[in-house]
Design brief:
alpha/beta, 4-stranded parallel sheet, 380 residues
Length: 380
């Protein structure tokens, strides 16, 4: 900050003194204590073994580059992460597992669920997994603030898409449950990319049938999604009614964050009240703050539970930031707090949610912790 001198200025030309400026600084600032500097140091502690291995693999699989190429790590055919604009669209360029029986060799597995027959307004989310995979090529596996490199700290694969049946909810639900149960039973952490929110029920069912342990749910959404039926079917407004009917998924461990606005059916509200679920509106979250709200959600979801399932509906983000959502509702989360979309903004937000969760699991050493509850694995 600068302040002018108290010297009186003369009105005569050439006699006015040069202003004396005083610089006010922040003597207590410690750059070594900033997140920015700590992130710089954290990067130095990360290995680069997997990155070197991938570059060698790219050369072996894609042929060494032309003689005119100075960087001898560049192959003739694009393989692996680089360049971001090229390559086959798996999630973040992860290996595609053609034989799904090999999925257990990985820490986590991405499952596409291209299904939108459960939507009651704007369809198109059947193209969600494709859109998310395509724009995920923009990301690297390294996050500066977290000090995490997913390539070095975990193994991730893409098993492709569940074969859903357009216009048949129940057959699609059976397919989804079977696919999720297979991946979960293998020990890999299933990461599902939808798809409208009706898939929440068959996804939870696929996990719940592999264990007799209790499962809590944290659900980010602007809509309560817990009525029994909608248009006489189990549509995208109903998944948590049916999920909390499962014997090891208690409704009291369902925590719903961001609910509100003019699109919350009273039928769902009545069920939530009758089953004693937990609902925090955006106003509640603003009142408590993000960190306190997260603590509340985790405490409620984990109370007497052995695992917690996270469901993130992209419409929980304010619709100004996610124009591709099927049920836009203003007033949701800001992107910092948490596709019909030619710019891929909505799909990019979906990618960010997934990698933030994976990054947090890697940073806190929680990858693989779900395996302890798998005591009824399925085999097909």
């Amino acid at each position: 900050m600068f302040s002018p001198s108290r010297a009186r200025w003369s009105r005569h030309a050439g006699l006015r003194p040069h202003p004396q400026l005083t610089r006010r600084h922040h003597p207590d600032f410690d750059r070594m204590a900033t997140q920015g500097w700590k992130a710089l140091e954290a990067e130095g502690q990360l290995p680069a073994t997997a990155w070197r291995k991938e570059r060698q693999w790219a050369l072996d699989m894609g042929l060494p580059g032309a003689e005119s190429i100075t960087d001898r790590d560049i192959p003739t055919f694009a393989r692996g992460e680089l360049p971001h604009f090229a390559g086959i669209n798996t999630f973040m360029k992860a290996p595609y597992i053609e034989n799904v029986r090999d999925v257990g060799k990985y820490d986590a597995a991405v499952i596409g669920i291209p299904f939108d027959s459960g939507t009651t307004y704007r369809p198109g989310t059947r193209f969600g997994p494709q859109g998310i995979r395509r724009i995920s090529a923009l990301y690297t596996p390294y996050n500066y603030e977290l000090g995490v490199d997913l390539r070095e700290q975990m193994t991730l694969c893409d098993v492709g898409d569940v074969f859903t049946i357009p216009a048949n909810l129940e057959k699609s639900f059976d397919q989804i449950t079977r696919g999720v149960a297979h991946v979960f039973s293998s020990g890999a952490l299933p990461i599902m990319l939808g798809g409208d929110h009706s898939i929440g029920f068959p996804c939870v069912r696929g996990i719940a049938q592999c264990t007799d342990k209790k499962i809590g749910i944290i659900h980010f959404d602007r809509h309560i999604d817990i009525q029994e039926k909608d248009l006489d079917e189990r549509m995208h407004t109903t998944p948590w009614f049916w999920a909390t009917n499962l014997p090891n998924v208690p409704a009291v461990n369902l925590v719903q964050l961001g609910i509100g606005g003019w699109q919350v059916p009273r039928e769902g509200v009545q069920v939530a009240r009758a089953r004693s679920t937990n609902v925090l509106t955006i106003a509640d979250i603003e009142k408590f703050g993000i960190e306190k709200s997260a603590e509340i959600a985790l405490d409620l979801a984990w109370k007497d539970a052995d695992a917690v399932y996270i469901s993130f509906d992209v419409d929980s983000i304010d619709c100004g930031f996610v124009p591709g959502t099927g049920w836009p509702e203003p007033g949701g989360f800001l992107p910092r707090e948490a596709p019909y979309d030619t710019s891929d903004i909505t799909a990019l937000m979906g990618v960010r949610v997934v990698v933030e969760v994976l990054g947090a699991l890697a940073a806190h050493g929680k990858l693989g912790s779900h395996r302890s509850i798998i005591n009824k694995p399925v085999t097909y």
